[in-house]
Design a protein that fits this description.
The protein has 7 helices and 10 strands. It is of the alpha/beta class. A 6-stranded mixed sheet has the order 6-7-8-3-9-10, sandwiched between helices. The protein has a 4-stranded antiparallel sheet with strand order 2-1-4-5, with helices on one face. Strand 7 (about 165-170), helix 6 and strand 8 form a beta-alpha-beta unit. Helix 3 packs parallel to helix 5 and helix 4 crosses helix 5. The longest helix has 16 residues, at about 175-190. The mean pLDDT is about 90.
């Protein structure tokens, strides 16, 4: 295996009060090359969001190995995982994850709270706003934005620190057809600029905007 993202025999098991054991991922092997745009497709409960959380250093595998840029996350401390999220991986959440009462600009400042590198912060924010086409919205409260505008803010926030890997969890699930097209075109532009992208989606049209599609079902990769 040789890629910027590598999963080797990865299993993730959850334990809950009602169900003793739920296997969300079962011996998954996956390699994502640097500069690739990968779409992971599957129905709800197939394991695709769990896969994204492991790649995004939000969780660790129960068994197997996850490597980001050659570094295994399995034995990392919470501080080290946070460092990976700050410097290597950014995530666009399904529900946007924005602070509704604050302005667009304020939301883009948030990643710098957790970063040791705050040099040129204002310039980086302006660049991200311009790239996503929302410069004119910088002083508008998030609560007054449309769904498509909020998604652009979420993407701008994810790219403001220019991490090499961008993850997206159902990024167009709440959007209309025209806005979906605009968002996938934005991801394609980011990919053309060198960003490695992994997007999970159940939307076939969105998935076809990627350079490679992987299908997942019952916690296993079934087709690539």
């Amino acid at each position: 295996m040789n890629g910027i993202i590598e999963l080797e025999e990865v299993t993730k098991v959850y334990h809950t009060k009602d169900t003793p054991e739920i296997t969300a991922l079962n011996k998954v092997n996956l390699t994502v090359k640097e500069g690739e745009f990968l779409s992971v497709c599957g129905v709800s409960g197939s394991g695709k969001s769990t896969l994204l959380h492991l790649i995004g250093c939000l969780d660790k595998p129960t068994d197997g190995t996850v490597r980001i840029n050659g570094e295994s996350t399995s034995l990392m401390s919470e501080k080290e995982l946070a460092g990976m999220r700050n410097s290597k991986v950014s995530i666009v959440l399904q529900d946007f994850g924005l602070i509704p009462g604050r302005t667009v600009y304020d939301n883009l400042v948030v990643p710098f709270y957790f970063s040791s590198n705050r040099k040129d912060m204002r310039k980086k924010i302006e660049t991200a706003l311009e790239f996503t086409g929302i410069s004119e919205l910088s002083r508008r409260p998030v609560i007054k934005l449309s769904g498509g505008q909020k998604q652009r803010v979420a993407i701008a926030r994810a790219i403001v620190n220019d991490n090499p890997i961008l993850l997206a969890d159902e990024p167009t699930g709440q959007l209309d057809i025209q806005t979906k097209k605009q968002i996938i075109e934005l991801f394609q532009r980011l990919n053309q600029n060198g960003k490695t992208i992994v997007m999970v989606t159940h939307d076939k049209e969105m998935a076809e905007g990627a350079s490679r599609i992987v299908k997942i079902a019952d916690g296993r990769i079934i087709e690539s």
